[in-house]
Structures are given as structure tokens and as C-alpha cells.
């Protein structure tokens, strides 16, 4: 097989043969490279195709040997026909190895398409070439068999190529189209060679050689393109390509339009092609309509029906594809996990229709935060995920957009409510090129649960030190029934979260007076929430929400910062005032609590004895064994410990012995009737005496009148606190009160 040059000289013939060998060898090498860059079935397909083109190159080399050594073209048949015939056999195997998207039903359709293509091509080939070859070589069976094998084998390869192309994935259609064209050119050249050989019209430099050369060039191009085309992930529903609609009918159209004028006479030579065209057009329209319906079904199968976002299957598919492109193109891939806090409260209080409306609006806001090419998916329930492709800095920017998107309240049933998400971000690091997509999703979930445990509105980015301890979702307790004030609870919770996040809680201070001389010996910090529409709220209006939804840590940290800052201000004014702060009892399981408090005091230059930690007695009941060592360390550092609301629960008096404490604060209800009820007075007197015997200071809180105050003073109570002595007041009023009490004000 040689290229056409200016003359038919010996030198030109050899040069043509060398160029042809180079082309076939180059196509084989390109196929080897394509096999090395592929995986799975495409790798095996290209490896087989490399063998097929290698056989072609070997046949060209033998042809060159005939021209150089014997200085004549090979006879027909010749030894060169062996590798030449091996090419279509190996090429057929190679094309059959390329993956196709087919189900049991589509495989049956595939079989009929293949039969249709093969029969139509054979009919067309017979009318154009094979009948003449049969007439010429019917007396020489060997020559006839070899001459017939080329077009027949080419027909088989071309049929397989057409069928595979019709069922190929979208990203593989370009290379398979080129392979089909290359095989078609080879089949055309082989058929033309068989045709002209009958008349002895083939010679070195024939135009047929150009067709073979073009075929080899297209093979090489297909192999080169394959190296840059990633294998796509499998879709849940496969949609046939546009090519698959018309390609099976192309051979029928050719055979039905070209064949009849060659073999028919009269009116039928015109009417038969018209019938064939009509049938093909009708089938193509029907196939196009089926494809459109299947495309709609495939899209619905990959979309969340409530929000219209991608569903879990589509998200995993796109993430797998993004990770594949990342490994080849050094691109950044990040996954963001978003989970709505307290969404169960929306469902239980407002009902499922309202909750579905919230989810739709959340989906819209998330979609508005991302760029074209990113993917937003609803993974199920109130869980969403975002696939971000591009620069790492961009993923962090989008994460902050998501946080900002939830600052605006949602309007549901005419009422506004704030919803806060827990957000985790995981970025595929450059040092892990083989990172699995599921691992990246798991890391984003770990970061999201870390944000949920911290009750933080900020984005938590995954790092290696994070340890997954499971979804620490706050338990809302017993299942709630839908209630009339459900929307108000949700709205109040959202506003509370917003107030905590922005430091919009206040602290007031109630003075504690020594009952023997009336001097201010300390203050207790009391939490207040200045609500923009409901006015100033006391803790009993919102503390249940704080406890139920895991906000106690944030509230406590906020209160401690404000209280210690105020204490530092008072000291700067020359008024060192001891401060008592309530701590949620479970905090006392934190062995780092003493060190944390001491560090906070040292940072402000405050002495440890200035701080008293109050723990609620009824909450300590199940915590005694755990908190004892923490309480002991607090006192070793100089921080005082008090039991608050003593007498409100059912704890045993042995706690006064077992717990290392400095103060007992008698609950207001416990001491309210001491001046009028002898039994109550006897109990309170016994507690005061017992506490003193143990070296514990007794503080009476909730003192409302002078009669109760006098009784407590007479029976040895150390400190009084309540409206009778002073109402809670702002921090800037405390120094004046201390000076006034020290001067002996008229109480």
C-alpha cells in the first residue's frame, strides 16, 4: 500500500512504501499510548486495537519487502495477506471491547440494529463490488476466498463499530466516531481494491492508497484524542445519543436508495427508494420522541422532587467525575456539607407542608450562592451538599456566602423565623491524588458534625486532627405535637441564636449584703436578653431553649467574658467586688475547666478569690462522682464554689459533707416562711447551723421583706440577697452602690 507521488519510479515506490509503513506504525504506537492512559475495558480495547494496527504495519512492511527485494508488487494471494487479514479480525475484537450503556431490552434492540446494518451493507457491497468479484474469480476458489474476505471482514468490523457508536457514552462518542470513520475508509479502500483488481487496474501509487493513508491518519487521531478523554461515571439512567437514532438506518437508506437504480428497471427503481426514505424518516421521528421522553425521565431520576436540586445519585456521579478530572488536570475539588439545626422543631410544630416550603427555600438560597458548574444537592431530609470545583480560595468564599444567606429570616405562613445551618467543608488536598470521592464526603460530614457540636455558625473546615464521634445531634426530648405557638418557638430560637452569635445578651448584677453590717460583699451575675420586640427577657423565658438546643456552652462563655470584663473595670475604679456566676452542672465534668477559668482571670489581672462558681443543687444529683475532683481543683486555685438553690430539690444533706464547697445558697422558697412557720424555721435553722459547723458560708437568696431579713440575721445567716436589699442593676451602677453601702445607708 503506497502513497501517490509524481511518478512511478522505483525510488518513488520505495518512498511511498516507507511513508505508508511509518503511518501504520505511528497509528499503532498512538494506540499503545491510548491503552496506557485508559483503565478497564477501554484499556483492553485500545491494546487490541494496537495489535490490529501492528498487524497492518507488518503487512505494509512485507509489501515494502516485495517492492525492494523482488522489485515487484506481491501476488494475490501472498504472505502479506496474513497480517492484512489479521487487522479486521483484531479490530472487530477491539471495537467489541469498548463499553456500551445497554440493558437487557437495549441489547435486544442492539442485536436487531446490528443485523439491519450488516444485511444492508452486505446488500450494498454485493451490488457494487462482490457480484463482479464472484463472476471473475468463481473458477479460482483460493483467490476468490481471499478477495472476498477483505470486504466481508471489513463489513463485520464496520457493523460492530456502528453498533458500539450508537450505544456509546457521551464522552466517548468523539473517539468512537473517528474509529468508525477510519474503519469505514479502510472498508471503502479494500472494496475498491477488490473491484479494480478484477480488471488489473491496481498499481503502486493508485488513488486507493490515499484512502488507506487517510484511514491510518484517522486511527492515530482517535487514539490521541482518547488520551485526553476521561472515562465517565455511570449514570443511573442512560439516554441514547442523537447518533444512535439515525445511525442504524443509514446503511438501510444507502442500500435502499443506491441499490434499486443499479438492479431495477422501470417505475420500481424510483418508488422503492422513496418507500425506504419514508420508513427511515418515520422510524427516526419515533426514536427521537422516545429519546426525549427518556431524557425527561433520566433528569427526574437524578433530581430531588421537592427542591429540584440534584439528588444523592447525581451528586456522587458528578463528584466522581470531578475527582477524575482533578487527578488529570490539577484542579481543586471541595465538598460542603450543610445540615439545618432544629429542623425537627419546624416539622413537629408547623407540619410537613411548612417544613417542605422551608426546604425549597433553603435549596434556592444555596443555589444562589454557587457558581455555574458547581452542584447543589439535597442528600435527604434537611441535609444538603455542595460540590465546588475551582480554586481553594473560591470554596471558602462560597462557604461564607452560604453563612450570610441564612442571616435573613425565612417567611413561613406569614411569620419570620431564622434557620441556622451547621456547615462543614472538606477540600481535596494536593498531596492525596488517589483520594476517593466517598472519603471526601465523609470528611465534609465530620467537619459539619464538629460545627454542630460547637453550635457555631461559622464554617468548620476538615483537618487531620478532627475525630469523628458520630452525629452529635441535640435531642429534643419527647416528641412534640404540633402546637399553636410552634412558630413562635422556632422564631424565638432563631432570634436567640442570632443574639448569641452577635453578643447581644446582657448581664445585670444583684448585690449580696452581709446581714450583720449591711456592706456589699459581692454580686451575682444574672443573664438578661434585651429582645428587640418582646422587651428584656429573664432566663426563665429562654433558658429551656438554651438547654434543649445545646447552647449552654456558648452562653456561658459569653457571660464569663462580660462578667470578668466588668470585674476588671471595677478594680480599675478601686472597687474590687467578688462576683458569683452560675455554671451549668455538666460543665463540671470538663477537667480543663479550672485551667480555663484561671487563664481568663490572669488575662485580666484578676485574683482567683474574686470569682465564685455557683452550681445548681438539683442538677448535681447525678454528677457528684464526676465533679468532685473538678470542684477540688477550683478551690485549690482559689476560686470559690457555691451550691445554688439549696432546698429546691431532694438532695441529701450528705452533699454538704461530700462536696468541697464554700457557700450554700438557700432557695427563696425555702426561706420564704421562716418568720411565720415554726416547722420551716426549724429546718432552715438546722441547715444554717450544720453549714457553719462544716465551715460553709450561708447565703439566703430571694429575701423580699424586712421581717425575713431580721429573722435570718438573728439566726446567724451570713449573707442576704433579694429585692429587699436591691434589685439587679447595670454594671456601671455597682461601684456607687458599694460606696453607698460602705457609708452606712438607711436600708
Brief account:
The chain contains 26 helices and 16 strands. By secondary structure, it is of the alpha/beta class. The chain is rod-shaped and about 135 Å long.
Describe this structure in words.
- The chain is 57% helix and 12% strand.
- It has 26 helices and 16 strands.
- The strands form 3 sheets. It has an 8-stranded mixed beta barrel, surrounded by 4 helices. A 5-stranded mixed β-sheet has the order 2-3-1-6-7, sandwiched between helices.
- The longest helix is centred in the N-terminal third of the chain and has 34 residues.
- It starts with 9 loop residues before the first helix and ends in a 5-residue tail after the last helix.
Compile the SSE list and pairings.
Elements: H1 10-37, H2 40-70, H3 81-97, H4 104-137, H5 141-166, H6 173-198, H7 208-226, H8 242-246, H9 250-263, H10 268-301, H11 312-329, E1 332-340, H12 343-350, H13 352-367, E2 375-380, E3 383-390, H14 392-405, E4 410-412, E5 415-417, E6 421-427, H15 437-454, E7 460-461, H16 486-501, E8 506-514, E9 520-531, E10 535-537, H17 539-548, H18 552-572, E11 579-583, H19 593-603, E12 611-616, H20 617-620, H21 624-636, E13 640-646, H22 654-658, E14 663-666, H23 668-671, H24 678-693, E15 697-701, H25 706-714, E16 719-721, H26 734-742
Parallel strand pairs: 6-7, 9-11, 11-12, 12-13, 13-14, 14-15, 15-16
Antiparallel strand pairs: 1-3, 1-6, 2-3, 4-5, 8-9, 8-16, 9-10
Helix pairs in contact: 1-2, 1-7, 2-3, 3-5, 4-5, 4-6, 4-9, 5-6, 6-7, 9-10, 12-13
